[in-house]
Specification:
The chain is an alpha+beta fold. The protein contains eight helices and 19 strands. The chain folds into three domains: 125 residues, Immunoglobulin-like (Sandwich); 159 residues, Rossmann fold; 37 residues, no CATH class. The radius of gyration is 31 Å and the shape is elongated.
Length: 354
């Protein structure tokens, strides 16, 4: 009898060790957000897919999944744990039948602009007795970008309304929306002010300027984020800069005005080298800029004067410029005036601190 009990215990011990070692064998795990670019407070899903590829019944799996920091969970009954640092985890326990797949989703939202990460999960499978667990980590690095809010500051809306209204677009984007493309001989019917005296002297007869009246209005958007990080509230000021930049770009899109985008903002993740977007218009152009604004950190890649130098080099003599900056100081005013001197358009600055 004693020998039988001993053999039974040894057999049970061996089975228990084997079941513990193979508790998660055949279990495949996937974890991804339904959206990778969202608005603040927009609800989306984080989707979990578990597959049991084995022929055995798995009685116990415990999931400990990461959610983005400071995520708000909207799924009722979800076991959510949040630590003092704002890190959020979703805990759950389940079982799986042989050759089965389980898909589920938890609905969340993110309250603020920024780059958020799903870092992965830990799965724990139990032995056949249910006394011990074996764990396995599934690290991932899925990014979720949250756009900045649109600015609702009355001063910003006033500036845009004044400069981008139907009656003032031509004055703002281009004081004289024509381009001199050449010259031709004076016929006597042209206004005297169109006579090109240098061409006339060179040709030995009166010549008049020939214009192209089909030139499309264009603009440049320049986002400056150089700010003193020792000043209380500087992060809130930069957040307003990002919101203003979004508002300006979307208004240009609404008006059908082509624009390029230049910034000294540092971004993290996939757009780490993002600093200049060439002239364009349309949904894809805007989304690329908005993604960069969502990824932007509170650091600047270069001082404001360097960004102004780049803006001067990019000017073709006709573009007007909208500058978004934390505040207008005497030093920055000189830089803005310098840019004004190198463009045929109007340069206007919208400070976040007013």
């Amino acid at each position: 009898m004693i020998i039988f009990i001993a053999v039974l215990l040894i057999t049970a011990f061996i089975i228990e060790r084997i079941s513990l070692a193979t508790a998660l064998d055949g279990i495949e795990y996937k974890y991804a957000p339904s959206e990778i670019i969202v608005e603040p407070d927009e609800q989306f899903e984080v989707i979990t897919t578990l597959t049991n590829t084995s022929r055995r019944f798995v009685p116990f799996i415990n999931l400990d999944e990461s959610l983005p920091d400071h995520a708000l969970v909207h799924t009722e009954g979800a076991d959510i744990r949040t630590d003092y640092q704002g890190k959020v985890r979703h805990l759950s326990t389940l079982y799986m039948m042989p050759r089965s797949m389980l898909t589920r989703a938890v609905t969340i939202s993110l309250p603020k602009r920024g780059l958020y990460l799903l870092t992965g999960a830990e799965l724990r499978g139990g032995d056949f007795i249910g006394l011990n667990e074996n764990s396995r980590n599934y690290p991932i690095n899925a990014e979720i970008v949250v756009y900045p809010q649109m600015s609702e500051a009355p001063e910003v809306l006033d500036v845009l309304g004044g400069f981008l209204g139907d009656a003032s677009v031509r004055r703002f984007i281009m004081e004289d929306p024509v381009l001199t493309v050449g010259s031709r001989e004076y016929t006597g019917r042209e206004p005297m002010k169109t006579i090109s005296w240098p061409h006339s002297v060179r040709m030995g007869k009166l010549m008049v300027k020939q214009f192209d009246y089909t030139l499309e209005p264009t603009a440049s958007v320049l986002l400056d984020v150089e700010a003193d990080d020792g000043i209380v509230g500087y992060q809130e000021t930069l957040e307003e800069c990002f919101s203003i930049a979004r508002t300006v770009c979307q208004e240009l899109e609404t008006r059908g005005i082509k624009y390029d985008f230049l910034t000294n903002a540092h971004t993290t993740g996939a757009l780490s080298s993002w600093s200049y977007m060439g002239e364009g218009l349309g949904h894809r152009h805007l989304l690329t800029i908005l993604e960069g604004l969502g990824r932007a950190s509170y650091w600047h890649t270069e001082p404001f004067y360097k960004t102004i130098e780049k803006a001067v080099a990019l000017q073709d003599g006709y573009k007007s410029v909208i500058i978004i900056t934390p505040e207008i100081t005497p030093e920055s005013r000189l830089l803005i005036d310098r840019l004004q001197a190198h463009t045929g358009g109007i340069v206007t600055a919208i400070p976040a601190k007013r």
